[in-house]
Amino acid sequence: MNDAFFYYAFNFNTICLKKYHYTDNRAGAPSNYLAYMQEGHCRIVSEQITLELQAGDVFFIPKGLAYQSYWSSEQEIRFISLGFHLFPEEKREHYLLQKIDCDAETARRVQGIPTNTAVDSRLLGDFYALLADLLPNMRYDLSNPKKDLIEKAKKYIHANPACKVADIAQHCLLSESALFSLFKTEANTTPNGMRQQILCEKATVLLTTTDRSVQEISNELGFSSTSYFRKVLAKTTGQSPRQIRKNSLLT
Q: What is the mean pLDDT of each run of 10 residues along the chain (251 residues)?
């Protein structure tokens, strides 16, 4: 491993804060974090889970999690933060935000990981040995987070048919390039391709359940022109508006 890998993949710190502190990480945690609360209280709020943490608690924040945290103490807020990108195994990577049940000796091992110092092979060996002992007690989500993001994007497009790719990316807390990569690998299409598919589904419903004109439907769905609407519809469904309406009468 080179120095650059060490520098970017691990970030071990002891963090001290004032009596009250708020952190907005709704853009997503940049790393996985194994942490130990030394002094103070913390409330971590995500979309699905809220953690209440006190001194002595060991906890975990997964990479990419959107959350807000509220820190307080009568004196000083102090915690150990062990940031890392890579798990030692691939089968259970989607661990949840959680407080980790562990004995006093394991908690001491978390506190014993050196912080605010250069990362080397010996330090990483100690860290991953500790992590390997903690993993069996950690909860994880068996669902596919990538497919969940695809579904989240699809729901957003359904609710906002005139949205742009940048809007979808922001809603999913991803960059546009990451969104394109996600759709390519998980849905075999592009965000705009998915959007056009959903628009054509909406168009088919309107064409077969109303007598509205093609131009009215095109305008409602946000197409730049009726001719472009016809082109996208033909490419996606293989039919013209007239054919869709005719075929609906035959079924």
A: 59 93 90 96 94 97 92 94 82 81 94 90 93 91 78 89 89 90 90 91 90 92 91 91 82 51
In the chain, where are the structural domains located?
Answer: 3-137, 145-250
> For the segment 217-226, what is each residue's pLDDT rounded down to a tens digit?
999 888 889 9
Instruction: Count Cα atoms within 13 angstroms, Cβ side, for 72.
Output: 4
pLDDT at 1: 45
Q: What amino acid is encoded at 162 in this protein?
A: A
CA-CA distance, 172 to 163, in Å (whole number)? 13
CA dihedral 141, 125, 61, 99 (to 10 degrees): 80
Fold that domain 3-137 belongs to in CATH? Jelly Rolls (2.60.120)
Q: What crossing angle do the helices spanning 121-134 and 104-112 adopt, rounded to 10°?
A: 150
Can you tell me the distance from the alpha carbon of 149 to that of 107, in angstroms, rounded to the nearest whole number?
34
Cα radius of gyration (the chain): 25
Intrachain domains 3-137 and 145-250 with the same fold: no
Q: Which positions ≥6 away from 72 have C-beta within 8 Å?
A: 19, 20, 21, 40, 41, 42
Strand order in the sheet with 41-46: 20-25, 67-72, 41-46, 50-53
Main-chain dihedrals φ then ψ at residue 13, nearest 5 degrees? -140, 150
Joined tokens for residue 191: 């965000």
Q: Which run of H or E residues covers position 44?
A: strand 41-46
pTM for this prediction:
0.58
The CATH number given to 145-250 is 1.10.10.60
Within 8 A by CB and 6+ apart from 249, the residues are none
3-state secondary structure of 127: helix
